[in-house]
Amino acid sequence: MHDLFVSAIGTDSGKTLVSSILLTAFEGEYWKPIQAGKPTDTDSVRNLVGEEKHVFHPERYVLQKPASPHDAAAEEGIEIRLEDFSLPAHTRPLIVEGAGGLMVPINESQVILDLIHHLGLPVVLVANLYLGSINHTLLSADALKRKGVPVKGIIFNGEPNEASQRFIQNYTQWPVLLHVRREESVTADSINKYAHQFLKTYHEYYP
C-alpha cells in the first residue's frame, strides 16, 4: 500500500494541509503519533476532509503544551520512547503526520527522524518557500539520506520561486509531486483539486 510519512523542513510548513490532500487522494487512513497542543491536527484534518471516507486513528501521545514533544512530555512527567510506537492496523493507505521538522526532539536523545526510521515508512517532504528554505530543505534531505530513509518526493508549499525549486530538485533528485499555492481559504474543492493533481503525478512515478 501507499503508506507515507508526511514530514517537513520546519514547523508550520504545511504538513496538515498536505496530509489532508494525500488522505483525500488515497481515500486512506490518518494517524498523528504525537500531538503537542490543541486543537489537534487530527481534528483539523477531520474538519478539512470529513469523516465519511476516512479512518482516523487515535494519537499515541496527546500533550497539552504547544512545544517540541520532548519539552511538552517533560512538563507532564512523561518520557516518550520509540518502542511505544507501532503502526496502527489498517487496510487502506496510511498517512502519518509528524510533529514539526525532522530534527524536532521527542526525548533527550532522539528526534522525529528516528521515529520515521523506527516505523519504516517512506517520506513525503513538505518544503515551504521562503528566504533560507533552500538551506533548510537540503539539510533535511541530507539527514534523510544519512539515515537511509526512502523519500517518495517533495511537495512545495507557497508562492513559486523557480530558482529555489530548480536547485532543490537538482540537488535532491527527488520527484516534485505537487505544488500547493497560497489559497485565500482552504475548502473541500481546493483539497480535491490538489488531491487529483497529486495522484496523477504520483502514479507517473509509482504506477
Automatic annotation (TrEMBL):
EC number(s) on file: 6.3.3.3
Known pathway: Cofactor biosynthesis; biotin biosynthesis; biotin from 7,8-diaminononanoate: step 1/2
Keyword Lyase on entry: no
Gene Ontology molecular functions: dethiobiotin synthase activity
Keyword S-adenosyl-L-methionine: no
Keywords, sorted A to Z: ATP-binding, Biotin biosynthesis, Cytoplasm, Ligase, Magnesium, Metal-binding, Nucleotide-binding
Reactions performed catalytically: (7R,8S)-7,8-diammoniononanoate + CO2 + ATP = (4R,5S)-dethiobiotin + ADP + phosphate + 3 H(+)
Superkingdom classification of source: Bacteria
Cofactor(s) the protein needs: Mg(2+)
Localization in the cell: Cytoplasm
Function comment: Catalyzes a mechanistically unusual reaction, the ATP-dependent insertion of CO2 between the N7 and N8 nitrogen atoms of 7,8-diaminopelargonic acid (DAPA, also called 7,8-diammoniononanoate) to form a ureido ring.
Self-association state and partner proteins as the record states: Homodimer.
HAMAP family registered for this protein in UniProt: BioD
Family of the protein in this entry: Belongs to the dethiobiotin synthetase family.
Alphabetized PANTHER family for the sequence: DETHIOBIOTIN SYNTHETASE (PTHR43210)
Name of this protein: ATP-dependent dethiobiotin synthetase BioD
Organism: Shiella aurantiaca
